[in-house]
Each structure stands twice: as structure tokens, then as C-alpha cells.
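Write out the 3D structure for:
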Amino acid sequence: MSALSSTMVSSRVVRQFSSSSSSSSSQSTSRKKSFSSSSSSRTTTKIQRGIRAQAIQQHEMTEGGVLLPTGLYCPDTTQTFRRKTRTIQIGNVKVGSDHPIVKQTMTTSDTRDVNATVNEIMRCTDAGAEMVRITVQGMQEAKACQEIKNKLLQSGYTTPIIADIHFAPKVAMTVADCLDKIRVNPGNFADGRKKFEDILYETDEEYQAELDEIEEVFTPLVLKCKENNVAMRIGTNHGSLSARTLSRYGDTPAGMVESAFEFARICRKHDYHNFVFSMKASNPLVMVQAYRLLSYEMYKLGWDYPLHLGVTEAGEGEDGRMKSSIGIGALLLDGLGDTIRVSLTEASELEIEPCTRLANLGMKACTDKLGGEDKFAETKRDFQSFERFNGDLPEQKSDDTIDYRNVLHRDGSVISAVSVEQLESEDQFYAELGCLLAVGMPLRDVATSDSILLREAPQASQEKAMRSIRRLQEIGCGVLVPEAELKKNPVPNAIAIVSLAQAINKEALPECSERFAVTLNGSESNEDLAKLKNIDAVMLLIQTEKGRSRIHSSRRIFEVLQTNGVKTPVIHHKHIVDGDKSDVVIQCGAQVGGLLCDGNGDGVLLEYVGNENIPLSFLRTTSFGLLQGSRMRNTKTEYVSCPSCGRTLFDLQEVTAQIAEKTGHLPGVAIAVMGCIVNGPGEMADADFGYVGGAPGKIDLYVGKEVVRRGIPMEGATEELIELIKEHGRWVEPKEKAAVTA
């Protein structure tokens, strides 16, 4: 009998994950140059104590003396505590909540090439990898494993080696004699046919018959791993769920969890517990929900197995790091995760640097017990069924001097913090803001910032800066300036930034402003936040004060806003005081991306004030990458690109770069570039088109999950892919920038 609730497999869940975010609009009452507010009952100390008591009652004690939350997926959604997990042994490395988060990667070399694989493992270890996984797809690779292990030991490397197994139970049995851990994929471990077929299992008997077959095939490996003290990862992939699982659960996080549990029950039946779980997907939202559901179901069962975290097929460069930071970082800040891998379409040793940053982020959050400033009960966010909370976009009023309807975007907004000096550079500034230029005038493009923030307003005498502001306002770009600054240096039609206290007290706006935004720092009372219901702000900016946890403070704010029906758009204002570009991606991906994975937030404002030279253009593209990685706003082609391994049938990095060069101008189009089909067509569930290695030198092309062209010579496969995109009406010709640039 499945441990999962039947509500998780309803079609509603599937639809919510596949649908795009949308925004509704409603008319709100306003008063020009003034604020309006309403009163709300004050939350008393007695009620707060009641909420804390209720939270305590939602825990129960297991036989082992572990306090587990019922109805939750982590120890506390208001503060970071590491989820208690057992220790498992992988070679000389211990994994579990009593130990630091373990970093790992995977080789890209052909496992049969012993020297190349050994050298790559040593490079990874030298870079900081604590475990390394290698591809073992057949008996030739399995025979090479013993030699690889011996050569590593002879060179003084005791790094645990993990065998990656798909379709090959006999191969797994062989390497269990020499390697430290076996990764099995529940979706294809017993499927030696390597087929991905849609099969309808009409009766429970048919379903159970296949489970019995899996148990027969899997049990020998369980017994051998137990005898040899070899660890195991039961690693579900979103893209390779079995036909049996799909027939009953659909392509859902619930199916991913149940697929893993089927194998875990067999392990437990034989008293084998030296294993970890993973729930990987290329879509960070699916990945996060699957891990949260896995943790929730384990709490219900009293299980305490460690978690291996990763976003599969994340891609390369900043995009790959951002998607990994969103998925892995969101979970780490909830206290989930004991070992991690950042999967990039790059050299394997390059994965360790972002992996280390994320591991450090997770360990620090747990050590510092991040959050906890405000204890509250979450009642509006349902982690089992993702829904996005959307604010209402600004509407035009009859007495508005300019058009404010485009200062925010329905799919997620990007606001850029700029300086007066940047405004004065004009053309260079417009380019960094993502504008096109026509005879010296800025024009909106697909990835142009929706609004700008000016900490300091220009003086009237600074003509170039004032001209830049006027030109941006003419194309619908909002200009946000602190209220105090506007009183010193008026900027016509600027959106004044005020505190919640100023808004509640109806303080007059500066003469130059007719609209305003409210900034929040996380310390506001529930009573005051509730008054936003009747305050006609264009947007809310959450810039948490120093010492407060962004993710936890923001969760309280969203709980209060939703409870009181506040529909003002909320922008996550991340004030970055130090760090380099990688820090910006990791920190913003984890903290802001984690909230967007909760379904909370309408946009992002990244403001960097550190000592590094980080360009405005980088912060803008990072912001758009954050929204796209969180499945909100698509401004460029989305690539689902696997990290390469010994199975890869072509140079994945080179081919991905070639495809991106020719197709990178197609916002809203998703292309999967896969070295082989081991993870199944489902791994391309988010992709519109697929470019997949079918045989050496041959490429198969997909539309969605369906292969439409097979065995195309690799030399012409990219052009064939472009033709396929054209046939389906998704192609546009690249813009000739020279034609529009003055």
C-alpha cells in the first residue's frame, strides 16, 4: 500500500505545475498624494503563545526519541534546523546530519579509459570533491572499476567511488565487490529493455506483479551491499519514472517519491539501511516539491535516511549555477540535505566551487539556526500543491500624468538599482539596462528592466541624468526614489519609496510624485502589515534588516498578506553588501529563489553595494535568470542540458555551445541537449524540442517526449533542429542590432 496521499496524484497538481503564472488586476481606491489605511486587531501575547503551543503539539516522538513534525516537511519553516538523519558509511566518508554536508561530482571520461578516469577523479578530489561518481553501463566498464580503484589507492587517493547504474542489475552486482556505493535509478533498474513505453496497468494485480519482479531482481544487490558494507543511493529522476509509476501517479512529485519508496521497502525488508534518497529534476520547482514531499512522507513513517540534493541537467555557466542554487539552496535553508552535487555541462572539477559555496551556506544556516525572530503558523502555503501568489498590477487612473501600467510585468518584474553617474552615460546605460537603441532613443526589449531604483536623485542641473529618466518613463519604465531624496531633489513623476509607518500615517507625498511604493524590513507587526489591505501602493519592497533571515521573515509577511487579502505586488529587494559574482548567484538563488519556490513574490531587485566591480548588466541578467529558473518569466531560450558522463555520445559542452549560439534568441522555447537517453524522454518534460545522442555520431530529435527524427548525422543535426523549430512555428530570425542602433 502506498504511503502517499491520493490527493497528491490528482490532475490538479499536474495542471498547476504545467501552467504558467498569471496575474489578475482589480480596481483599488486611491487618493492622489496621500495614503489610506484601515485598522486591524492587535495580535496579543496570549495569541502568540497559543500559536507556539499549537506548533509544539504538531510534533510527535518516535520510538527512537526523535521529535518529528506532523504535517510538515522540515523541523521548522520559521527557522533553519537541520533535519535529523541517520549516519551512513560510504567508504571512509560519513553522511548524515551529525556530519558536514558532503560534496560530490561525476566524471565525464569513458570509464573504460582507466587512466583518464583516474586522472579526472584525482583532479576532482584535489578541487575538494569528497565523493566521485562514475558511469558503469556495461561489463567492460565494470571490469575497469577494480583497476581504477587500485590505481587511486596506489596514488594515495581514498576518495569513495560511486557506480552509476541504469538498466543493468548484473553490472551492479559486479561493482558491488569493489566500489563504495551503488546508485540505482528505480525507474529503469530492472528494465533491461531500455524502453520507455506508455503502459496502462488496469488492475492492482498487474501493478503488484511488476513490483514482485522488481523485488526478485533487486534483492540480490541489497543482500550483497549489506554483506560488503557498500552504500546505496535510491535516486529517482523525474524524467525516467517507470510506465507502472506513470500509470498510477502521473508525471508528479508523488510518483517520484513512491518510486523510491518501492525500492526502500525492499531494503528495509532485509534490514539494510545504508542508503540515501534523491529526487532529481531539471525543473527546480518540481525538484523542490519532490524533496519536500519525500521528507514529509519519511516523517510520517518515522524514517530518517539522508538526502542527496541536486538539480539534474542544470546546464552551464551562470544559468546552471542559478538553477542549482534555487533548488539546492531552497532545501538547505529548510534544513534538508546531507550531500549535494551541482550538475553542470562543464568539466567535472568545476562543479566543486559552487558546490562548496552551497554546502557552506547550508551548514552556516543550520549552525546559526537562521531565522526564528518571529514564530508563526503557516496556513496559506501548501507545500504539497504549488500555487503562486500573484499581486495585482498597477492600473491607470484618470488623473495620472504618465502611464504606470508597465512599471511591473505580469510574469515577474526586474528592477535595477542605478546611480546618477550611470544615468549620465546615456547610451551605455541604456545598453546595460537591456534596451534597444533607435536614433539614440531607448526602446524596450524582451529583457529590459521594468523599473529602476535611484538611492540618490539627480539635481535639476544634471541634464543628461534627467533626460535619461524622462526617456525611460516615456517607454513605461518606472523610476523609484526614496521619499526623503525626492524632497531634496524632485524627480517629476517618480514613484516615492516610503516606510509602512509613513503610509499608515498618511504622510503627504513629495510634490513631484503621484504614486508610491512601501518598503518593508521584516520587523513590522502583523497588525500594521494587515493595514496594507487599504493602502494603495504600486508595490511592496521587502528589504530585510540586518540580522533577520530573509526567507523566514518574508514567509511571515506573505502569511499575513494572504490572510488579510492584500493583493499588492511584492518585490524581493536583496541588498548585497559583499561577495563576488558567484556569491551573488548563490545567495540570491537560495534566498530569493527559495521564496519563489514557495510561490511567493512578484519580482526581484538586486542592489549591490560591495567592493567588487559587478556591472549593472550582470545584476540585470542574473535577476532575469532568477525569474526564469523559478519558472516565472522567460526572456531567453531555456536549455535542459545534461552534465555529461561516460555514456555521452558526443562532446556535450561543444555541441551545447553550438546550439546555444544559433538558438539563444528564442525566449519561451526550451531545448533539451542530452548526451544519451538514459534518463528517459521525461527528463525533457520541460523542453519543447530535444537533441539526443542515439548512437555514436547519430542524433535523435524530439518534439516534447516524442522522437520525430532518428539517426541524423551529427554534422547536420543542429540545422535539422532549427528546421524542426521552424516547422512548429517557434522560430524567429535573430535581431540585427546594427539596424536599430544609432
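Confidence is low (pLDDT under 50) at residues 1-68, 737-742.
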